[in-house]
Amino acid sequence: MASRSARPADPPLRQRNALAPGILGAAALVAGIPLIGGEFAMVISFVVAILALIIAWFAIQARQWWWAVPIAAIAVLWNPVYPFSLDQPVWLAAHVVGAATFIASGALAWVPRPEAAR
């Protein structure tokens, strides 16, 4: 019987540090849609603003500042210190666009793996 080669798989060349916070931020925004205007909307604001700042930092570290700009806008829009008062349909659209931005920036902001640089 032939055995498989014991050769290890090649490691990935890219590292997506912002993917997990992007998925968490998108999930928080989608979960926060029914909470728009409610008493727990402030909790969603804290979660979204913190995750947006984390992704913006990862995008700047990856030298992909074009992802840091829309994510920083999300951090400003959902900041809990100076909350914006927008109409409910506008917040609904902002939640959907924000979730899509979180997923896109998390999936597309990457850095080369340190092992791949050698």
Please give the domain count.
1
Total number of beta strands: 2
Give the distance, in angstroms, between the N- and C-terminal Cα atoms: 38 Å
* Mean pLDDT, all residues: 89
Please state the overall shape, judged from the principal axes of the Cα atoms.
Answer: elongated
Walk across the major sheet and give the strand order: 1-2
Amount of beta strand: under 5%
Structural class: mainly alpha
Percent helix range: 55-70%
H/I helix tally: 5
- Main beta sheet strand tally, sense and closure: 2 strands, antiparallel
Uncertain residue ranges: none
Radius of gyration: 18 Å
Summarize it:
This protein is mostly helical. It is built from 5 helices and 2 strands.
Would you kindly provide a written description of the structure presented here, covering whatever features stand out?
The protein is mainly α and 118 residues long. The chain has one domain. It is built from five helices and two strands; from the N terminus they run βααααβα. The chain has a two-stranded antiparallel sheet with strand order 1-2. α1 runs antiparallel to α2 (41-61) and α1 packs antiparallel against α4. It starts with 13 loop residues before the first strand and ends with a helix.
